Amino acid sequence: MRDLVNTAAGDLGPSDVADVAAAVAEELPLTVEVLDETELEQQGFGGIAGVGQGSVRPPRLVVVRYEPAGAAKHLALVGKGITFDTGGLSLKPAASMLGMKTDMTGAATVLAATVAAARLGLDTKITAWLCLAENMPSGSAIRPGDVLTLKNGKTVEVTNTDAEGRLVLGDGIAAASLEQPDAIVDVATLTGAQMVALGDRTTGLMGSDAFVAQVRAVADAVAEPVWPMPMPEELDGRLASDVADMVNATVGQTAGGMLLAAKFLERFVGTTADGTTIPWAHLDIAGPSENRGAGYGWLGKGATGVMVRTLVALAEDLQGK
Predict the structure, then answer these.
(1) What pLDDT is recorded for position 251?
(2) Which position among 80, 101, 166, 309 bears the catalytic label?
(3) Residue 92 is a catalytic residue
(4) Is 166 a catalytic residue?
């Protein structure tokens, strides 16, 4: 997984990640489904299709399934897979664009965790949703002010094309919810605000209270630092739009950026058959995903593989409940 994240973006577009997933699955009890740009549009994945429409390398949704016989629990993993993030028409400054080849770390993480579960023969069913796109500026790119319809039918006014990760994740979370898993975890290098709040080594953890506590416990057990963050109700007001169900960002208002992104994602979490909300956790790994300095512990410079151990431990924990 770390090799995948460290690969230069010019050598790794959405279809390349899909090819890697398919190749890995050949040797394991995994199945892989790949939706191309046409299928994404036809099936209502407006977030992934919209973010990827500005690139000459089209978007993909890769679904990797591990389905051991007799599994009593089903864990859905959703990964942000922006293979390069320029910011789109809301173009990033030059310095902020450096390192954006790693913006697909969430997708690599959920793939690696699913592969590990298959190799270990765990008894938990896992479905990984790799939401893959390259966010580029061009004549075909989405514009600020455009309205996208995501997988669950909710509409989003795009106020900032550089807040693209939550658009692809919204599709992935909504699609995962349709299968009514026992829990959903999304993983993403989502916000610079995570690094401001928690630094380079502590992952931001948000979501359903009881499930957040469970994720924190397994993360602590495998020595991957996480810290639960609040999701204040007053942030809902900042997502209001005059032309859609919500906006994807509040331009010029930076306070609580990590929390606002989680509040956005929360709107795409579905319900179980009895109408209760599916347990959900959001892991913002913007800082911990990459070691930008000298090596420490067993880690060298570059991609860290953070949260793979936690996700595998969570799958093990679920199979025992």
Answers:
(1) 93
(2) 166
(3) yes
(4) yes
